[in-house]
Design brief:
Number of strands: 31
Shape: globular
Structural class: alpha+beta
Helix content: 25-40%
Low-confidence stretches: 665-695, 704-727
Largest sheet: 6 strands, mixed
Radius of gyration: 28 Å
Number of helices: 16
Distance between the termini: 32 Å
Mean pLDDT: 84
Strand content: 25-35%
Number of domains: 5
């Protein structure tokens, strides 16, 4: 049982669990410590039972109907009266709602609310996941009605007070399967003062123009907080008319946008920037593959196909290389990992799993988005306006000490200070990248860091080495970005954006109360006077918690579907042998990732042989007391697929024995993977002037990324020719 106060979890014995179900909130009293030293408790009172659907398979045993929950955490089957099965047939996947709660002497009782279909139906794993994790997957009627009333194209009245950038050859660069395009880029050489560099325009879809605060579309978007991505299917944050149509920066059509207009020097520092509203016309829809091919061969067939845009792409590549200099100077962390992509056939089954290849095109867009996000955070901080920042903190003292001991045990020639910097982490990553156990070391570095969250309390982004960072570049698929757009627009207009009193789920309320209580405890320990957070600050705290929680929910749902698909895929390979790499070690066994399929499974400790294996937490390895055999991350092994549990999303392996012991080779190293206010130019028509200057109301670049003088950037000029995405 997880405690609200964040203290160590409490163990509930089986007899206590009979009267409760997964996600119940209870009051419990600790009665003793069990033989494993865990606090054991007795339930005093059930204080909240969320109205949650339970998904499972309808079964009939000895004439009794019951639903076996797909999620094993529910612990017991649901009895279904004969007249409450609806049209469901035996073996079908159904959604059941409780009509009688469980008790110490009786099982829970429910009725079938919805029939999803047969377990082997295409897309069933997604239907289960969206209900299992309560992902909103149907827009409200009010939202759809409002979307239907929106125009299908940009109207003349929409262009008032906007900069006309339709002659600027902004282009989108995305993956082959992308359907919504929320960012476009353009770059050219520029001179400002005595410096040479580039002018980089990052244009982002102006979703906030069409989605008013508190409107039906806004309420549905807030509830979702993010788009959810599954193999072959996306559950969007916005209705399709907006996400794939009116807001998407589709090629060769006019679109409204918010622009971050930056001057960047040769060292990758943002010298100055400005934000303004504009109208644009995407001159091309590039894929990452297209851009990579053009940059690798500017005289090849792809370059010939887009010959008018080749020079623009070269300029983008040039500014990217300068931004990389700035990244290295900051000491941003870059680890070696392997990311994979699931390729499905027409029926939704896995066809193959392939590693994602990150090209210069991917990194080019990532760095451009990072620069725009940093400028948006700096702009908001200078205006002293509340907003949600993307905060990523370094290791906690406990994790720092664990990491320090691990590095010492592994003989890594690096040290961590009591307040480690991103540069120290990057130095360790660089120093260990050629070691055979590099993947294990980098995995430990990653695990020592905290998760990134959305919060109005800015404390910087540790991994990217930014003192202030937020999300501005993806308002079609992320609600925090939409909030940032509204804040920036309010600042430009000289107003203050008021966050509406949108509904907050009970779980987020609990987290908010927990966080505020923790802040209060810290203030009590300090000598500084305590001050109760204002209602406005609490509202922004709640919004950040809600968006963070729903981001986690989307990730969990996506991982659940991928795990289901991989289990289904591996059922076809039961009994087959594969080579693999140890990807994780625990006290109960060894996780192995297969080379050919990029699927992970467990070799349970009982399968390791007759020796007694002890888990060394410091070294993250299992060692046999008698044989001295050690299993650690990176070890090369050969395994056989022995069992696949589709319901539990688990794959079990066993060693392929050679001369009585598993085949062990040298460790395998993984592949590297990436981890301002201003008025618009006064003459909008000047956007068509080939020789216009950059005399916008620029702001000096953020201190975190600019080493340039902090004098007024308004005096700088630059000729503008007519011509992940950050996922951090």
């Amino acid at each position: 049982m997880q405690r609200d106060d964040g203290q160590i979890d409490v163990y509930l014995p089986p007899n206590e669990m009979r009267a409760v179900i997964h996600r119940d909130r209870v009051v419990a009293r600790v009665t003793r410590l069990d033989r494993k030293g865990r606090p054991e408790a007795r339930i005093v009172e059930i204080i909240d039972r969320p109205q949650q659907p339970i998904i499972g398979r309808l079964l009939q045993e000895s004439g009794v109907w019951l639903v076996a929950p797909e999620d094993r955490r529910y612990g017991q089957d649901i009895l279904v009266p004969k007249g409450a099965t609806g049209n469901a047939q035996v073996g079908q996947v159904v959604v059941v709602e409780l009509t009688e709660a469980p008790s110490l002497f009786g099982q829970p009782v429910g009725r079938v609310k919805e029939v999803l279909g047969e377990m082997d139906d295409p897309g069933m794993e997604i239907e289960i996941a969206v209900r299992k994790y309560s992902v909103p997957h149907e827009f409200s009627s009010a939202c759809l009605a409002q979307a239907a009333e929106l125009p299908v194209k940009v109207m003349a009245k929409d262009l008032v007070d906007r900069v006309d950038l339709r002659d600027i050859p902004l282009v989108t660069i995305d993956g082959e399967d992308a359907r919504d395009f929320d960012d476009a880029v353009y770059c050219e050489p520029a001179t400002f003062g005595k410096q040479k560099g580039w002018r980089l325009l990052v244009a982002i879809a102006d979703v906030s123009y069409y989605v008013d605060t508190g409107s039906p579309i806004d309420i549905d978007a807030y509830e979702r907080a993010t788009s959810v991505y599954f193999p072959r299917r996306v559950i969007p944050m916005l209705p399709e008319k907006l996400s794939n149509g009116l807001c998407s920066l589709n090629p060769l059509v006019d679109r409204l946008c918010m622009v971050c207009d930056m001057l960047i020097d040769e060292d990758g520092q943002v010298f100055a920037y400005q934000f303004y509203q504009a109208v644009m016309h995407s001159h091309a829809r590039f894929t990452y593959t297209d851009v990579a091919a053009i940059l690798s061969n500017t005289r090849g067939p792809q370059a010939a196909k887009y010959k008018d845009r080749v020079q623009d792409l070269i300029h983008l590549h040039d500014v990217y290389r300068s931004l990389l200099k700035g990244r290295e100077k900051r000491g941003a962390v870059d680890f070696e990992t392997t990311e994979t992509q699931i390729i499905c056939d027409d029926s939704g089954r896995i066809e193959k799993i392939v590693p994602r290849v990150r090209t210069q095109a991917h990194r080019l867009i990532e760095e451009a988005m990072l620069a725009a996000n940093v400028c948006s955070a700096d702009f908001i901080l200078q205006a002293k306006h509340p907003a949600v920042f993307r905060v990523h903190e370094g290791p906690t003292p406990e994790k720092r000490e664990t990491l320090r001991n691990y590095l010492k045990a592994m003989g890594v020639p690096a040290s961590l200070s009591d307040n480690p910097s991103p540069g120290q982490f990057q130095a360790i990553a660089q120093a260990s990248k050629d070691r055979p156990d590099a993947q294990q070391i980098h995995s430990m570095l990653l695990r020592s860091m905290q998760q990134a969250i959305y919060t109005p309390l800015n404390s910087g982004h540790f991994g990217l080495a930014y003192p202030a960072y937020t999300h501005f570049t993806s308002p079609i698929r992320r609600y925090p970005d939409l909030l940032v757009h509204r804040v920036i627009k309010s600042i430009l207009a000289g107003r203050r954006y008021q966050l509406p009193g949108l509904p907050l789920p009970g779980e987020a309320h609990i987290k908010l109360a927990r966080r505020l209580a923790a802040q209060a405890r810290l203030k009590e320990k300090s000598s500084a006077p305590t001050q109760k957070p204002s209602a406005e600050q609490q509202a922004w705290e709640a919004a950040g918690l809600h968006c963070s929680a729903n981001e986690r929910r989307a990730d969990e749902a996506s991982r659940d579907v991928e795990a289901w698909l991989k289990c289904q895929y591996m059922r076809e390979h039961l009994g087959e042998d594969f080579s693999g790499t140890v990807s994780g070690v625990t006290a109960f066994g060894v996780f192995v990732t297969l080379d050919a399929m990029y699927v992970e499974g467990l070799v349970h400790i009982t399968e390791l042989g007759g020796d007694y294996f002890k888990f060394d937490e410091t070294r993250q390895e299992l060692r046999g007391e008698r044989t001295g055999i050690r299993y650690n991350v990176g070890a090369r092994v050969r395994v056989q697929v022995s069992r696949v549990d589709l319901d539990g999303r688990k794959i079990d392996f066993r060693w392929v024995q050679e001369d009585g012991s598993p085949a062990l080779d040298k460790p395998l190293r993984g592949k590297k993977s990436p981890s301002g206010d201003g008025n618009a130019p006064s003459n909008a028509k000047g956007a068509k002037n080939k020789d216009r200057s950059a005399r916008g109301n620029f702001h000096a670049g953020p201190k975190s990324v600019s080493q340039g003088p902090k004098t007024s950037a308004k005096k700088t000029t630059a000729k503008v020719a007519k011509k992940s995405k950050n996922r951090q």
